[in-house]
Write a structure and sequence with these properties.
Layout lengths: L12 E7 L2 H9 L4 E5 L5 H12 L3 E7 L10 H8 E7 L1 H30 L6 H25 L4 E7 L3 E4 L18 E5 L3 E5 L12 E7 L2 H15 L9 H6 L8
Parallel strand pairs: 2-3, 3-6
Antiparallel strand pairs: 1-9, 2-7, 4-5, 7-8, 8-9
Helix pairs in contact: 2-3, 4-5
Length: about 260
Amino acid sequence: MNYYSFARNSVNADIYLGQGAGKKLLNDMENAKKFIKIISPYHSTNYLELLILLQEKGIDISLITSEEIKDYKEASKGTLKTKLIKQEKTVNEKERKKHIVISKISKFSILGFVLSILIIFGLGWKISEAYFQGLYISIGLMAIGTIFFFWSTNIKVNTYAYKELFPFRVFDSPHKLNYSHSGAFHIHSKVYIIDDEIAYMGSINLTSSGLGNSFESRIRIIDKDVISGLNEMFEKLFNHTDNIFLDNIAWGKQAYAEPLN
């Protein structure tokens, strides 16, 4: 038996095979008291929202999943990322005030350029010293406006930080990954551990179909020794350094804009 494996024989468990297999699992999740640990390579955003709700109620959530979303009609990958990774913006007041001043100088300079050009050509000035003086002033205003405009766009007013809503690991889509290098593997198992009292294994993904009316298999376990072993395996997988997990923060940042000002 290798490091990333777990086996028990003669386990006392409830087995169900058929439609609606996820209903009992969902009920146990909704009634969790302390924590829920989940391994599910596929997920639906509505059930991620359930996990978020449970987290807000004080239930500790840990999740191992992939980028695979089963309900494309309901949400996009960007929506998923903004649910799991939250952006926090900090405004530098000193730089904000500088940005306002520089932006005003730019706007007034460009406005002055436009008005001076209209005056020059509106009056129909002939080629003369006054004409060239007016033209030089116009060009100068435009140059100032342009310089200050680019200056204002590069003033960093905002800085951003990101944090996970709850601990999770995301591995890339199995359709895109190359698992040829040593130590990496696709996690395809479905495991749910609730309060160290109940564990589920089987075919049920954290999806609308899996927890709905799809024909699924469900094994419900209350054996403490087995649940302890599943907990240990979950922690090993969660902290597996050789596998191809995405950088959560970098992954989440893809869903957010980061305007400088």
